[in-house]
Write a structure and sequence with these properties.
This protein has ten helices and seven strands. By secondary structure, it is of the alpha/beta class. Strands 3-2-1-4-5-7-6 form a seven-stranded mixed sheet, with helices on both faces.
């Protein structure tokens, strides 16, 4: 029975790899924009809470938007100074963004006591919203990308970004033509299925779906490897098994 189970698992992995290969080929051939996404040349602002969020959670979106020829900028709301590593993590963030194709001039890091890297501190929604709106208006942003209410990992700082974006959207304060796209949180099982989650991601409702090719997966892993101060053993396992290193499904507000 154990041998049969092993063979079934091996077959599932082979089928998944084959599916990904077909998906990659199809993605490369597509000329149409994904549902509702603004077109080439659009200015997209990725909004994260900590250095490493851009690689750990959003790499498929960043690289997918690059395929669509978006101009991607990053607004990171903290330096990740929870363990007094803020200066190190700022440098790691710039290195990671360079791997992902975001130039240093497009990376903005907020180092403010109002937004500490601390899961026990709830950031003030109005203050986050004010800062976010200033950057959206200054950058003439067409698309904001951030976490959903679950924040992928449940981190309160992630959820605070969603609350601020939702507030701006609900109150009609965003500039005309600016949309908000949120990264879908999934349950723990799906989170660590890696590319085996692809069938679920394809079948379930979403507004945008980005799946990385094998080359792009290596690029995402290289970006994550720039965050050397954070690469503890469990994060190395995360890089290998998390769907978020390969697949992003997103919803519009």
């Amino acid at each position: 029975m154990e041998v049969v189970g092993l063979l079934l698992c091996l077959a599932a992995v082979v089928l998944a790899w084959g599916f990904l290969w077909v998906w990659d080929s199809w993605e490369r051939m597509k000329s149409l924009e994904q549902a509702g996404l603004p077109g080439a040349g659009s200015r997209t602002l990725l909004v994260t809470a900590h250095p490493d969020d851009e690689a750990m959670f959003f790499a498929p979106t960043v690289l997918g938007l690059a395929r669509l020829r978006h101009q991607v900028s990053l607004l990171c709301f903290s330096s990740g100074n929870y363990y007094n590593q803020g200066e190190i993590r700022k440098k790691e963030l710039l290195q990671s963004c360079d791997v992902l194709g975001i130039p240093p001039s497009n990376v903005m890091i907020i180092d403010n006591r109002d937004f500490p890297d601390d899961p026990g501190v709830r950031w003030d929604t109005e203050r986050v919203a004010d800062v976010l709106l200033r950057h959206v208006e200054a950058g003439r942003v067409n698309l904001v990308v951030t976490f959903d209410a679950g924040g992928v990992s449940g981190h309160s700082n992630h959820a605070a970004l969603y609350a601020a974006a939702r507030t701006l959207h609900a109150e009609g304060k965003l500039p005309k033509g600016c949309s908000v796209l949120t990264l879908q949180s999934v349950n723990l099982l799906r989170k660590y299925l890696s590319l085996l989650d692809l069938p679920c991601s394809l079948l379930l409702a979403r507004d945008a779906l980005f799946v990385l090719s094998r080359r792009e997966v290596a690029q995402a892993q290289k970006a994550m490897s720039c965050h050397r101060s954070q690469l503890l053993w469990f994060r190395r396992l995360y890089v290998l098994f998390s769907r978020y290193m390969r697949i992003n499904s997103l919803h519009f507000l």
